[in-house]
Design goal:
Elements: H1 6-12, E1 17-21, E2 25-30, E3 37-44, E4 51-55, E5 63-65, E6 71-73, E7 79-82, E8 85-87, H2 91-99, E9 105-109, H3 122-131, E10 133-139, E11 149-153, E12 156-162, E13 166-172, E14 181-186, H4 189-196, E15 202-204, H5 205-213, E16 226-229, E17 232-234, H6 244-257, E18 266-271, H7 275-290, H8 320-326, E19 338-343, E20 346-352, H9 372-391, E21 396-408, E22 417-428, E23 431-440, E24 443-456
Parallel strand pairs: 4-9, 13-18, 15-16
Antiparallel strand pairs: 1-10, 2-3, 3-9, 4-5, 6-7, 7-8, 11-12, 12-18, 13-14, 16-17, 19-20, 20-22, 21-24, 22-23, 23-24
C-alpha cells in the first residue's frame, strides 16, 4: 500500500468499508493549554469500535469515546469528558482521522490534551500516512439528512443540506468584520490533505492577554498559531493559503462533526462557525437520526403507514361538491378537499396529500415534498371560502394578493393530511386578511398572514 496516498487510493477504489490504521503511529509535542510535553500514539482498532481517547497517565487507563454526548466544553476548542477525566483540544487530530476516512482508532495520551503541533493537522496527517490504512470487512454507515438542519448560535448560522458527498461552504469573520474570508470545497481524502489540513489556528492580539491570564494557552506561540494585530498578520512563515483563517474554521468543522460517530453525506453551509455551534449541529443531526425514519417515497404506491386522523366535521362543514360551487379553482389547483367547520371568523379545511398530486413529478423525484407556496395557496383558498361566506357574495372569486410572516417548519409528504386553519383578522369591503396555519398530525408545518380580495368572476 502506498502510504502517502493510502487513504485516497482506498476510497477511489469504490470500496466503502470501514477503515483503521495499518500499524501504530506516534507523535510528541507541546500541549497548548499546559505547555508540557505530550506523547500521543494512534493504535489500530476493530470495526465498529469507533474513535476513542485513552489516558495512559491515569490509573486504569480510562477511555473517552469521541462522541458528541461526551462534549463538556466548547470555549475556543472542543473538550471531551467523562467524570473527572477530560481531553482538551481534540478537534485537530479528529479532523485528520475524519479527513482520511478512518473510522476506528485508539488515541493514547499521557496528558489531558493532544500535542498542538503547528496549530493545524499537518503533523497528524504525516504520521497517518506513514502508518497506512487497513480496510475492515464491515461496511461504513453514512448518514444523509432527510431534511435541512439549521443551527443559530449568537452570530453563527450553520445549515446542513442533503447531498451525495460531504461538502463545506464557509464564511468567517470576527465581530468587527475583519479578515472576512470565504471558501467552499468537497471534503474527501484528497481535498482534505490539499485544501484544509495545513490551515493553522489563529487568534486576535487583543485576546492573548486574557487567554494567558486564565491559563488557557501556556503552550501557545507563533510556532503553533497565527496572530492578527490590527491589519497585520504575525506568523513565523507566510500564510499557507490565501484563505487560511476560514480554511482552519472548516478544519474544525471536519473534526467536530466527526463526533457524530459516522460519516456524513451532506453540504454544510456555515457563517461565522465555532465549536459550540458545531457541537449543536451534531446534536441536531443525532435528533434527526433518532426520529422515526420516514419511508423513502417513490412513484410506486407509498408504503403502509398509520392511517392519518382527520378531525370530525362540525357546523359549516362543506364537501367537495359544495366547495366547487363556491370556488372557481379546479384540479390540479384546487388545494382543499373539504371544509370541516366555520366558527365565526375561523375556518378549518382539509387537504389529503396523495402521491397522485401532479406537482410531485418534479418536486422532487424520489423525495416528494409538497411545495411551500402551494401550502400558502391552500391557506388563501380556505380564507377565501370564509370571506365569501361572511359577505354572502355571489359570482365572486377570492384573489390571493400577498403573504407576510411566512414560515415553513416541516416538510409535507404523500400520505399526510394537511389541516388548514385560518382566522380572519380583517375584513373591509371585499378585502380580507387572515392568519393561516397548516398542521399535520397536530404539528405546525407552515404558517403565514395572507391577504386576498374578492372580484367578480365574470
Amino acid at each position: 500500500m502506498c502510504p502517502c496516498q493510502a487513504a485516497w487510493c482506498f476510497v477511489q477504489s469504490g470500496v466503502l468499508n470501514q477503515q483503521t490504521l495499518n500499524r501504530s503511529a506516534s507523535y510528541s509535542g507541546i500541549g497548548l493549554h499546559s505547555g508540557n510535553r505530550v506523547n500521543m500514539t494512534l493504535l489500530p482498532a476493530p470495526a465498529n469500535s469507533g474513535v476513542r481517547f485513552r489516558r495512559v497517565d491515569l490509573d486504569g487507563q480510562p477511555e473517552i469515546e469521541a462522541r458528541v454526548e461526551n462534549v463538556t466544553e466548547t470555549n475556543r476548542s472542543t473538550t471531551l469528558g467523562k467524570g473527572n477525566v477530560k481531553i482538551h483540544t481534540v478537534e485537530h487530530v479528529l479532523a485528520a482521522l475524519a479527513g482520511y476516512g478512518i473510522d476506528n482508532v485508539v488515541i493514547e495520551l499521557d496528558a489531558n490534551e493532544p500535542p498542538i503541533a503547528d496549530g493545524s493537522s499537518r503533523e497528524f496527517c504525516k504520521i497517518i500516512q506513514a502508518a497506512g490504512l487497513a480496510p475492515l470487512p464491515e461496511k461504513r454507515e453514512f448518514y444523509t439528512p432527510t431534511e435541512p438542519i439549521e443551527v443559530r448560535h449568537g452570530e453563527t448560522v450553520m445549515t446542513l443540506f442533503p447531498d451525495d458527498a460531504f461538502k463545506i461552504t464557509c464564511t468567517s469573520a470576527d465581530k468587527q468584520g475583519r479578515f472576512t474570508q470565504f471558501y467552499s470545497t468537497e471534503v474527501n481524502p484528497k481535498t482534505w490533505e490539499k485544501e484544509l489540513a495545513h490551515a493553522r489556528t489563529f487568534c486576535f492580539y487583543e485576546e492573548i492577554e486574557f487567554l494567558f491570564k486564565n491559563g488557557l494557552i501556556k503552550g501557545g506561540s507563533l510556532e503553533n498559531a497565527v496572530v492578527i494585530r490590527d491589519d497585520a498578520v504575525l506568523t513565523t512563515e507566510p500564510l499557507r493559503y490565501r484563505e487560511e483563517f476560514v480554511r482552519h474554521k472548516m478544519l474544525d468543522i471536519v473534526g467536530d462533526l466527526s463526533l457524530l460517530g459516522r460519516p456524513i453525506r451532506g453540504h454544510v453551509v456555515a457563517v461565522r462557525p465555532g465549536h459550540a455551534a458545531n457541537a449543536e449541529l451534531v446534536k441536531k443531526i443525532m435528533e434527526q437520526i433518532n426520529q422515526p425514519i420516514r419511508a423513502q417515497q417513490t412513484f410506486a404506491p407509498p408504503p403502509a403507514k398509520d392511517a392519518p386522523v382527520t378531525p370530525p366535521a362540525a357546523e359549516g362543514a362543506m364537501d367537495i361538491g359544495e366547495l366547487m360551487k363556491l370556488l372557481p379553482h379546479r384540479p390540479p389547483f384546487l388545494l382543499v378537499d373539504r371544509i370541516l367547520k366555520i366558527e365565526g371568523m375561523k375556518i378549518t379545511g382539509v387537504k389529503n396529500v396523495t402521491m397522485n398530486e401532479d406537482f410531485f413529478r418534479g418536486h422532487f423525484p424520489g423525495h416528494p415534498i409538497m411545495p411551500g407556496v402551494l401550502q400558502l395557496e391552500a391557506m388563501a383558498q380556505v380564507a377565501g371560502v370564509l370571506l365569501l361566506k361572511i359577505v354572502k357574495a355571489a359570482n365572486q372569486v377570492a384573489y390571493f394578493m400577498s403573504a407576510e410572516e411566512v414560515k415553513w417548519r416541516k416538510p409535507v409528504v404523500p400520505g399526510d393530511v394537511l389541516v388548514i386553519e385560518v382566522e380572519l383578522t380583517k375584513a373591509r369591503g371585499k378585502i380580507g386578511k387572515g392568519k393561516g396555519v397548516c398542521k399535520v398530525a397536530g404539528e405546525v408545518v407552515s404558517e403565514a398572514e395572507v391577504t386576498f380580495m374578492l372580484r367578480d368572476a365574470s
